[in-house]
Amino acid sequence: MYHMTVYSENGEVLIDQAVEAATDAAAKQEAHRLLQEKGYETKPHRVFHRTGRLVMFKPHQFDTKTSKATI
């Protein structure tokens, strides 16, 4: 069992759901499919195994001058 969380630029949770997959590779593939389906490929996101192992991660991008998200 895996879990995916997707955030907006201001930290709002856009997706917070379980991802059914047997392997890390299958979880990544399913997560990419869900991201594309919702148009969230560029949004900050993470996918992790139920044991806490991080499988996929895209962090927020910040402008170092303004300290604001740039996505």
Automatic annotation (TrEMBL):
Protein name in UniProt: YhzD-like protein
Any matching Pfam family: YhzD
Species: Laceyella tengchongensis
InterPro entries: YhzD
